[in-house]
Amino acid sequence: MTTTTLALGPSWLDPEYLISTFGLIGIMAIVFAESGLLIGFFLPGDSLLFTTGLLIADGEYIDQPLWLVCILLVVAAITGDQVGYLFGRKVGPSLFTRPNSRIFKQENVVKAHEFFEKYGPRSIILARFVPIVRTFTPIVAGVAGMKYRTFVIYNVIGGILWACGVTVLGYFLGQISFVHHNIEFILIAIVALSVLPIIIEVLRARAANRREAAASDDAASSSDDDASVGGHGRHRLP
Predict the structure, then answer these.
(1) DSSP letter at 5?
(2) What pLDDT score was predicted for residue 188?
(3) What are the b/e assignments for 146-158, b being 16+ CB within 10 Å?
């Protein structure tokens, strides 16, 4: 199987290139980094797991059986989130005042915090399927002081559903000829579906801001009208 890099940006981020170059250890390292390290938000987690399943089905680059690969990837994902949570507990609120750099953007932390506030403990599971947010959500959970036992439970569930689920999906779809003939578009679809929740949230936030701005303008206009009426009334007094 040969994939292209159209959907995945630079060639060194192409899942097949990463897998063929670094093997299973490299896949685990990437899953670990993207799950809870600040520097891992740009890594291709979803497409990497899906391609891993495809390659296992093809018998390319990975000699280990599917069940073993899934277990190792789940462990890497869970461990990554644990590290992110502990990092958040240690760093605390200072994370929200950290200046932007080439690899750190304050807006990513804000998005993850809003996601965590909206979904609560469930965000640990849901964030697994949202790029960038999945990297910062366990960190934000640590900053927010989420109970460790609760975090562990949701972290394990999320790690299994994401790491195992996406890999197994790639494995079974990899046995379908249509998928092989359209692998580039399949990867594009995966990336698009992963980013879709972020786009929806951005559009909702913009719509909410517009509604608030319109409400503020209406309130200001109403206040001016009341003041104008009151002023005219005072002029009519003897």
Answers:
(1) S
(2) 73
(3) beeeebeebbbeb
How many Cβ atoms sit within 10 Å of the Cβ of residue 5? 16
The total of other beta-carbon atoms located within 10 Å of residue 78's CB is 23
Q: What is the pLDDT of residue 7?
A: 44
161, 122 Cβ separation under 8 angstroms: no
Alpha-carbon distance 89 to 73, whole Å?
A: 24
Contact at 8 Å (CB) between 16 and 1? yes
Closest CA to 81 of 154, 147, 130, 13: 154
- Tell me the C-alpha to C-alpha distance, in Å, between residue 40 and each of 14, 20, 45, 84, 128: 15, 20, 9, 11, 13
Q: 111 CB contacts (<8 Å, ≥6 apart)?
A: 132, 133, 136, 198, 201
As averages over each run of 10 residues, the pLDDT of the chain (238 residues) reads: 48 80 92 84 82 89 93 96 91 71 66 79 87 85 88 95 93 82 73 67 73 75 61 50
Question: For residue 215, how many other CB atoms are within 10 A of its CB?
Answer: 10
Q: What is the pTM of this model?
A: 0.73
The three-state DSSP-derived secondary structure of 42-64 is: CCCHHHHHHHHHHHHHHCCCCCC
